[in-house]
Amino acid sequence: MGLPKANRLKHPKEFQSVYQQGRRYQSPHLVLRVLSKTDPLGETEPPQFGISVSQKVSKKAVVRNRLKRQIRAVIRPLIPAISTGCKVVVAVKRNAVECNYEHFLRELEELFIKAEIIYGHTRKHLL
């Protein structure tokens, strides 16, 4: 099951804007790009996510799609805790093929906290 439509980055222009203007955070298996937008009118957009798995990770589409499914499954329960108005692209590194759900969950939570987009958590609280 995928992410809700409101929480998806759909167009290449959206991905490109996040890559060009967003901040970058890394872990051993993932790279997170975050673009936080503050709306002056006070309207809040839900957080939007995109997942990028290159052919450099694996030539087999089955493997790439499995990685995307695992990351989507990790993101889905975290959506209510993530601040509104941010656009996030999760890119998978080459060595992530051996990762499983628990590794992705731990790394994504750490990256979200480092990027300070999870409500109630800031990096200062953990240090």
Automatic annotation (TrEMBL):
Its EC number is 3.1.26.5. It catalyses: Endonucleolytic cleavage of RNA, removing 5'-extranucleotides from tRNA precursor. GO terms for molecular function: 3'-tRNA processing endoribonuclease activity; ribonuclease P activity; tRNA binding. Keywords: Endonuclease, Hydrolase, Nuclease, RNA-binding, tRNA processing. SUPFAM superfamilies: Ribosomal protein S5 domain 2-like. PROSITE patterns: RIBONUCLEASE_P. GO terms for cellular component: ribonuclease P complex. It is an enzyme of class 3 (hydrolase). One of its GO terms (biological process) is tRNA 5'-leader removal. Gene3D superfamilies: 3.30.230.10. Consists of a catalytic RNA component (M1 or rnpB) and a protein subunit. RNaseP catalyzes the removal of the 5'-leader sequence from pre-tRNA to produce the mature 5'-terminus. It can also cleave other RNA substrates such as 4.5S RNA. The protein component plays an auxiliary but essential role in vivo by binding to the 5'-leader sequence and broadening the substrate specificity of the ribozyme. Belongs to the RnpA family. This is Ribonuclease P protein component. The gene is rnpA.
